[in-house]
Amino acid sequence: MINTIKMDVRSLTQNEKKILEFIEEFINSKGISPTYSEIKEAFGFSSYNSVQRYIHQLQDKGYVKVPGNNQKRAIKLLQSSGALRNSLSHIRSKQQTTIAVSTPTITPGVDGPRQGSLSLPMLGRVAAGRPIEALTHEEFQEVPTSMVRHPDKCFTLEVRGNSMIGDSILDRDVLIVQSQKIARNGEIAVCLIDQEATVKRYYLHQGSGLARPQVELRPANPELESQWYPPDQVEIRGIVVGLLRKF
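RE: above sequence
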């Protein structure tokens, strides 16, 4: 049975966290809150609508407050960007229940009686957001044997970011990846771009008026856009076949 944990601090998307950190650092360094114009310039937004949307989201989640009197520097910081991290760390220290997710649906469920486990290489972190680092051997991860069909072809990675939340892949989940060099359209793939790893749904587009084939790495987060690359810039390292989650 899974215990439901109620958290006062709501999770942030990668972009929300960056903007909150910018506001916090601005206030700490200058003693005043940034204007919408300063946020727009810092992040290169094309319009003020993007700034207003993110501030509204941060306000809804209880991190900032903006009085409705149109003051120029009216953003008030209610909680720091570290509040969620501290809350999650506290929860993890209290509970270390692992939820094993059966393949291939990537839908959290309860891990039944285990018939044993095996150790798979943990090859570092992978970004569910922007690419962050190449795959390097670091340690091992215990995985239920029932989740792995081909142990000699599998490895694990820790997720960083929230671009795949629509597929129930959350920040700090551990992905089980089957090593292979090809992926079918729509599969969740781990790819290298300029030696940096990322996880996205993979689509190869060719024909239909395109001058040349293009690889689309599509996030599962409506706030983010697909990343497009020529096929020779994308190296497929494997497809996601399951995940582990700790609370």
